Amino acid sequence: MSSKTKLIFKNTIFLYFRTFFLIFIGLYTSRVVLDLLGVEDLGIYNVVASVVLMLEFVSSSLTNASQRYFNIGLGKNDFDLTNKYFSQSVGVHFFISLVVIILLETIGLWLLENKLEIPEDRTFASFWVYQMAIISVILKINQVSFQSLILARENMSLYAYLSVFEGVSKLLIVFLLGFYDYDRLIFYAFLLLCVELIVFICHVFYCRLKYSESNYKFYFDKSLFREMLSFVGLNIFGSISWSLGVQGINVLLNVFFGPTINGARALASTLGRYINQFINNVFMAIKPQLIKSYANGDSKVMLIMAEKSSVYIFYLVLIFVLPVLFDTKFVLDFWLKEVPPYTVGFAKIILTQSFFWMLAIPYSFITTATGKIKNIQLYGRLFTLCSLPISYLLLQYNLNPYIPLIVVGLMDMFYLAYTVFDVSKQLEFKIERYFINVVKPIVFVTLPLILIVYLYFSYIYHQVSSNSTLNFLCLGLFSVFVGLSFVFLVGLQKGDYFIIKSYIKSKIA
What we know:
This is Membrane protein involved in the export of O-antigen and teichoic acid. This protein is mostly helical. It has helices at 3-75, 79-114, 123-152, 156-177, 184-210, 222-246, 248-257, 259-295, 299-326, 328-335, 343-370, 374-385, 387-397, 402-427, 432-459, 468-491, 494-508.
């Protein structure tokens, strides 16, 4: 097995266990937060923070842009060039954070005070939650250069440790929240901000101590600044379009249905968020090698890596998510003391949507590697942005809160199709290749697996035992067993058997 493959396996395992640990903590803490804050305050926090979270996704797009440049510098073993990229990146992010502050304290504040449905007795709390969320976003933006360098260096263990610290800190927040009786919503937002500050400091100090290329030196290259700002600008446009189309749904639901529905969506989104974090983390282990392959002139290797990661991560998520989709009500009942109306339906839609969203990720990585991101960020993300006006128009005729989430899922399908089409033009391969190497194996595994699990759920599930927890565990084990069987029988290519066999032998030996 090559050193690249071993590194990907190692990083994937780190991120894999980190994610499951955080899922466990996150589900528990969100349950207690619901109990302590109540559905209305949780809904207020979700909708108020979403105004800011629309721009928080700017930080993820900045990470995407910065990591691309750092990977190119490191792929060439040119640490001086990497330091120039880093120094320029710090300057770009500081400039962007100033622009973000102006936007959030003007347009964002106006939206909060004039357009959102906030109960009068909670306007004071919502204002301070909003201000603390702004500071959190500014910290995230200025943290980007340091986090991107850690990811480009493929130090996934540190990334995992910091994430675990963040998860444990949020668990401690829940504990402290129970002893506070004044305004728990404000206190909750303040403690979350403290965690963000500590994580920011850890990123900065670790990079300064460990990586010489993170020593900031004032550097300004006009052409590089324009290139980076153009690249970042396209990423930001794509992220804002995504945020308006997805996070903007929170505002739309608030306007039509009030904060209680926001609370239901927040809880359903928690399940989806942890699944998406798992997806992101696994792809994160692949991304540096994918970009470095392109930097070394191995476009064919890059494309194969994107295809294989699409298929195998889809299998992995499908096997574990399928039982949750079939009995979402049990999962929510087990997790929460009281399940708000619409939460079950929201959760099913959000989890289903994740499958289409994940398939676009490796191909968006390819456009990041080539630097040709204009089409998918400018035109592709228009599909996602359209979710908001389309949902608004449909809600005028049918007041059904499920409509906006279904629209978002459909737009994700269009975005996936456009992304693959754009990459096929860039790398000059026929679109049939995607259907043969990605769609075909996924369909051959997914359709029979869903059918068999459906038959089990319909005719055997409730007959296993009178204990619903035991029934669900059996459903999960059945899904894993049948899913892995189909993956090994029809879902793998010949070369993949050799890789897996070699990996298992290396661990046993």
